[in-house]
Amino acid sequence: MSSPAQPVAESLVQSVDWLAIAPPTLAAVVALVVLVADLFVSEARKPFLGWLSVAGLAASAALLLPLLDGDRSTFCLTGDPSACSYTADRFTLVIQFLVLGGALLAALLSVTALKDARGRLPEGEFWFLLLSSAAGAALLPASRDLATLVVALEVASLPAFALVGIRHGDRRSSEAALKFFLSSVTATAVSLMGISFVYATTGTLYLTRIADRIQHVDGRFDTLAQTGVVLTLVGFAFKTAAVPFHFWVPDTYIGAPLPVAAYLSVVGKAVGFSGLILVTVVALPSYADVWGPALAALAALTMTVGNVGALRQQATRAYSAVRLLAWSSVGQAGYLLVPIAAAAYSDDAEHAVGSTVAYALMYAAVNLGAFAVAALVGRTSPRNRLTDYRGLYARNPLSALLLAFFLLCLAGLPPGVIGLFAKVTVFSAAVDAGLGWLAVVMAVNVVIALYYYLQWTTLLFRAPEGEPVEHRIPAPLTVAITLTAVVGIALSGAPQLVLRFADTGLF
Amino acid sequence: MIDINESVMQFLLAFVVVGPLLGAAAALLPAPPGLKGKSPEQAVLRHGVTVTGVVLVAAIVLALGFDHDHPSKMQAGTDISWIPALDVRIHLGIDGISLPLLLLTALLTFLCALYSYFKMPAGPTPKAFVALVLVLESGTLATFAVLDLLLFFLAFEMVLIPMYFLIARWGGEGRSPAAMKFILFTLLGSVVMLLGLLLIGIDAGTFDMVALATDNGRSLTTSVQVIAVLSIGLGLAVKTPMWPLHSWLPDAHTAAPTVGSVLLAGVLLKMGTYGFVRILLPIAPDGFHTFAPYLAAFAVVGIIYGSLACLALAKQGAKGDLKRLIAYSSVGHMGFVLLGIASTTPTGVNGALFANIAHGLITGLLFFLVGALKDRTGTTDLDALAEQTGAALYGKAPRLGGLLAFAAVASLGLPGLAGFWGEMLAMFGAFDPAADLSRPAFLTFTAIAAFGTLLTAAYLLVVVRRVCMGTLPQDAPKLADVQTYEFAAWTPLVALTVAAGLWPKALLGLTDPAVQQLLAGGTR
Fold first, then answer.
1. Least enclosed by CB within 10 Å: which of A244, B137, B350, B372?
2. Which pLDDT score, from 0 to 100, does residue A470 have?
3. Does any domain span residue B413?
4. Whole-Å CA distances, B431 to B297, B336, B338, B349, B409
5. Tell me, what's the pLDDT at A336?
6. Inter-chain CB pairs, A–B, below 8 Å
7. Alpha-carbon gap, residue B463 to A17, rounded angstroms
8. Mutation test of the interface with chain B: which of A94, A407, A450, A452, choosing the one with the most B Cβ atoms within 10 A?
9. Domain for residue B501, yes or no?
10. Eight-class DSSP state of A462
11. Helices B175-204 and B222-239 meet at what angle, rounded to 10?
């Protein structure tokens, strides 16, 4: 490339590494195919679209395999090959796997949900939106410049608004969508302003270049740069559902179809925290003294508010099970933020961030598992109250045992061994960074969380009210529950499978 | 005693830890043909007896194969890497400190399974009951057998869920809040403990207990040791329980089924004191010495507080619950154990370990007896039992009454029975504490603890008088006396109580070399 004899045209035309960008691209292509196919498929054949989407997501996840052999970058500056917009390194691949796998499981739940809705949900649009959002979410961890990052964030979010409000004529659904939309747009706007400040002071959008140049910012722009750093984080904190940007969560989860809530709780969070990691650890390591304390405070607030909110749920209220999962997901977001905050204080930031990734993988598997069982119970008791889970063991022993396992993983107690060790890595990141107070706050929160998880677990084994009704579990739900259970149990036996990310370099 | 191949020993220890877990999984499956028994309930209860029995036999063989000439050496060791990312290794091994506790656990669980086979506590299916008891056994045995700090934490946490469900599903009145209180208290303690363990592990660069004990705190600064001891000590103190962190214990004991109480008092509490000896004493000696006087102070307050609470419960008209009373007496007894550990001398720590075992045997027996009493009379309320003159158990059921009186005097520390040696040695240790500890303070503690033994004797004798003695009315209904299965479950405890009282060397000979080595810093 550096040869002076090179034709000018070649230095202008980028060579694209199609294999590297294949996973998000395939998801986007399948989304378009589904949208077009929807026009030509008869009403009776609509379920075909669902299976096409599931296959598409599985295929894009499979396309991660050939990328495992090493780091790849594409869309690089022709002058400076080290500044790239798209990089498929270990971090990218792990998060893409998480996002695509999460979307796949959410899609499996959706197949049943759409079938049960019997045409009240527009199938073609649903699958198009889900796939495009997944494509955006898969693009995000690979983006290495702020513009791509924001575009990916929006591609992941905009379809999600529509998904939340997809139930036509349901007032709660559209209200939730509006609430979600307005607050999210505000957060993005604030974020964009922050990015413009950072751009103004550094003159570049590439994360690695920002990392270099922001150290040499003119002293008079110091305040501007710091404000920019803080404002940039807002948009991502919003996606992670960190307090005080969490208020949309409970209403949105209840208003949305259950699979969409499951999708948001896992993929939405992954989008948020991977963006946060990229902005903080990759782009702004020299401003650790600004974002470190901010994220630490955010983490402490988030987990406390989330867990206390979950604690206050009344079991008899409508949708209390989903509400509880929503609040608990806010609490879990707090744990996810702890290692990112710890990265600011630690010499080895990648090591700390790896704990977040490991925790997120565990959380994704068991939280989707819990949502899958909730979807199962929701089929017979559409109001999905916690009291509806009473005596689940008598009705359906296996799914009750699995839900108990998922909940105990979330709580972090054996037999949920992987939950326990994932928490241990997060704790150890905090202790390693000298954030003792945050570790203690988290310790208290783990106890608060156990209270509500355990109450739910106990409820499963109570004597049922009334006769148990035999109920056949649809195949896609069975597959989703089995997949998450196998992952959860396998990880409990061999925690190293995910914990190794906490031990090695990701970037 | 007998020569067993090292790899067989390794297998036996691994089997003792994992066996119950496999048994628990098998208990949930339907019984295979040929083992169906009379009913599914009977089959699964028999399965429980078989598994715990096999584990007990394995533990006994392990004890026989144990090299009694070198009890301070880690034996039957396994060391496999499990989670390299966190540096967690499956490191198992036993020495003279853990072997007696391992045996006690295997024995008590077997006796509980045997007892439940004939007398299943009222509640939902026995299937879950057996599975939970087996998971509980596995967790406890693992706590005593592992030599990795994070694995210790895992084992420590493993007992919480089974015990919670044993209390919440098979318990008596007020079981749900009691079970919740138990698990929340213990979890809060153990999460704080985890922070201390991580601090040690990260600072010293290893989680291996043997390596850390050999290092004897040399690679940890004093401030790290102080923080680590404070947080680990808190977690262990909740479990032990140490006054004023004991308030979960009386509720849990009162609500728990008989078998739950026996295991809780007999085995679970020992996990706390074992942690003190195994982790804090050798790994963070400086930090421990800083806190030793405070620990001793809390311990003697616990002794006095427990005895006074028992006296108040034993009084006529106090509506005292017998199970609650024994729970409070446990707080007092564990106070002696903590006092012995706090003295940081070989004598004191040996006494503490002896008292640990003695408490497991005697209090286990007491809870069995009170449970049997409750089955017969339907109450454990002292006033309801004794009415005006006394329950006259000697007249109504002489053997049961005799056993109760035996357990009570064993508990108050009658010389010649197991309860005596541990408490005496613990006080001896406190009388002459380690060189850098304040002698006058410890002399005061010893004096107060000695006074506590008097109070202990007082309330236990009051209990014997009110429950066993009394005038027998003419028309009083006879109570069923001790049944065969009850004899089977209780005789080993009685025999061991007498044996440990008459021949303390059998136990002290095991613990002493190991304790000497731990206090001297791993290597001697």
1. A244
2. 67
3. yes
4. 14, 13, 14, 13, 25
5. 94
6. 96
7. 84
8. A450
9. yes
10. S
11. 160
Backbone dihedral angles phi then psi of residue A82, each to the nearest 5 degrees = -85, -15
Looking at residue A16, what DSSP letter applies? P
pLDDT-based confidence at residue A215 (cuts at 50, 70, 90) = confident
Q: What range defines the domain where residue B480 resides?
A: 290-524
> pLDDT at position B524, please?
46
SS (H, E, C) B308-360: HHHHHHHCCCCCCEHHHHHHHHHHHHHHHHHHHHHCCCHHHHHHHHHHHHHHH
> Is B328 contained in some domain?
yes
What is the count of structural domains for chain B?
1
A394 lies within 8 A of chain B by CB: no
- pLDDT above 60 (res B414): yes
A353 pLDDT more than 80:
yes
Query: Per the domain annotation, does B101 fall within a domain?
Result: no
Tell me the mean pLDDT in the region B183-187: 92
- The CA-based diameter of chain A, rounded to the nearest angstrom, is 84
Please classify residue A500 by burial: count the beta carbons closer than 10 Å to its beta carbon, then call 0-12 exposed, 13-18 middle and 19+ buried: middle
Residue A406 burial class via C-beta count within 10 angstroms: exposed 0-12, middle 13-18, buried 19 and up = buried
By Cβ distance, the residue of B86, B158, B161 closest to A499 is: B86
Supply the pLDDT for residue B112: 94
Q: Does A312 touch chain B (CB under 8 A)?
A: no
Domain ranges within chain A, ordered by starting residue = 12-502
Looking at residue B294, its pLDDT comes to: 95
pLDDT beyond 50 at A2 = no
Q: What is the overall mean pLDDT for chain B?
A: 90
Chain B nearest C-alpha distance from A434 (Å): 9
Report, as an integer, the average pLDDT of A396-424: 92
Query: Minimal Cα distance from B202: which residue of A?
Result: A432
What was the ipTM of the complex prediction?
0.91
Closest CA to A426 of A414, A412, A407: A412
Nearest CA in chain B to A442: B191
Q: How far does the CA of residue A72 sit from the closest CA of chain B (Å)?
A: 25
Mean pLDDT of chain A: 88
In this structure, the number of other CB atoms found within 10 A of the CB of residue A502 comes to: 28
Q: Which residues on adjacent β-strands are paired with residue B148?
A: B208
pTM of the model: 0.93
Question: Do A454 and B180 make contact, defined as CB atoms within 8 angstroms?
Answer: yes
**Per-residue DSSP letter, B119:** S
Q: A249 is written with which tokens?
A: 């969560």
* CA atoms of B518 and B283, how far apart (whole Å): 9
